[in-house]
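Bug #77: duplicate submission created two jobs. Keeping one. Sequence:
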Amino acid sequence: MSYCEQHPNIVFINRVLGNWDLEVDFDAKNSREIHDMVKELKSRFSSLIRDHTTLTILKDKVLNPFREH
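Kept job's structure:
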């Protein structure tokens, strides 16, 4: 967690229940940066990462979660 908190490209960390234990979101300029980041994480934390899934988000729109319904 401390590694992720200090990494300049990691923008979101979420501990979850279910198929995965952790969600790590990071910004990348292109597919090469995505590949390099995943490779770095898997190499650095090979004893902790058993499997991973990559989801590429091309456009993101964050709505106000505090708006009244």
